[in-house]
């Protein structure tokens, strides 16, 4: 058995089952507008807080310790999936916001995402917490069908460190390396 020296990682939270079902119902009619797109499987949907890219396997234990500290310091979050956007017209995503809505750079979600990026050494301040729906071309036009989407509130209760892997031409596979409940005491 070989140990891979680099692992492709991200930090995420999960929408509730009800939020996922609600989004799935909203997305289904839009899928017909982009049959050539690669659509994310709803069972794999997650809200990415920080994309870390390739991380040395040796660095994962200290990264996990830092993220555990971030999770322990925060209570569960009340969030809503809301709004859509795209990255370079190639990635369609749905946004997430605090509930009730607050100024973007002062709310609990923003603080969690910033602390996560700081703890993980991910310095891209432009990064936006999002749930990826599809990859392809012309995603901005596809997103127009979801422009008014706003889900019902849900509670995010844990932080995840996730490894992403994919074979050539295959969908991404995700594996939790660690999860931490928000607000938990050390050792719980």
Describe this protein's structure.
The structure is a single chain. With 188 residues, this protein is an alpha+beta fold. It has a single domain, classed as Cyclic phosphodiesterase (Cyclic Phosphodiesterase, Chain: A, Alpha-Beta Complex), CATH 3.90.1140.10. Helices cover 24% and strands 35% of the residues. It has 4 helices and 9 strands. The strands form 2 sheets. The protein has a 5-stranded antiparallel sheet with strand order 2-6-5-4-7. A hairpin with a 7-residue loop joins strand 8 and strand 9. The two termini are 32 Å apart. The mean pLDDT is 86.
List the SSEs and their pairings:
Layout: E1 6-13, H1 17-31, E2 38-39, E3 47-56, H2 60-72, E4 77-87, E5 91-98, H3 108-120, E6 130-135, H4 139-143, E7 154-156, E8 158-165, E9 173-181
The strand line-up of the biggest sheet is: 2-6-5-4-7
Quaternary structure type: single chain
| Name of the CATH architecture | Alpha-Beta Complex
* Count of strand segments: 9
| Average pLDDT score | 86
Residue ranges: pLDDT <50 for 5 or more in a row?
none
Number of helices: 4
Structural domains: how many: 1
User: Strand-and-helix sequence, N→C?
Assistant: EHEEHEEHEHEEE
CATH superfamily: Cyclic phosphodiesterase
- Determine the strand fraction and express it as a percent band: 25-35%
Largest sheet: 5 strands, antiparallel
Please give the share of residues in helix: 10-25%
Q: Give the terminus-to-terminus CA distance.
A: 32 Å
Q: What sort of overall outline do the alpha carbons produce when their principal axes are compared?
A: globular
CATH secondary-structure class: Alpha Beta
Radius of gyration: 17 Å
Could you tell me the CATH topology label: Cyclic Phosphodiesterase, Chain: A
């Amino acid at each position: 058995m070989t140990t891979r020296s680099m692992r492709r990682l991200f930090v995420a939270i999960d929408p509730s089952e009800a939020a996922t079902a609600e989004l799935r119902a909203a997305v289904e009619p839009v899928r017909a507008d982009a049959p050539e797109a690669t659509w994310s499987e709803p069972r794999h949907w997650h809200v990415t807080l920080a994309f870390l890219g390739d991380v040395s396997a040796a660095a994962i234990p200290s990264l996990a310790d830092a993220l555990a500290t971030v999770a322990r310091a925060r209570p569960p979050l009340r969030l809503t999936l809301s709004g859509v956007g795209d990255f370079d017209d190639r990635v369609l995503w749905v946004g997430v916001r605090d509930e009730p809505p607050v100024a973007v750079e002062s709310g609990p979600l923003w603080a969690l995402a910033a602390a996560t990026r700081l703890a993980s050494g991910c310095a891209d301040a432009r990064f936006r917490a999002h749930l990826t729906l599809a990859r392809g071309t012309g995603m901005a036009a596809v997103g127009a069908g979801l422009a008014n989407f706003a889900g019902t509130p849900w509670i995010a209760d844990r932080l995840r460190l996730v490894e992403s892997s994919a074979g050539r031409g295959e969908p991404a596979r995700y594996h939790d390396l660690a999860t931490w409940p928000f607000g938990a005491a050390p050792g719980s």
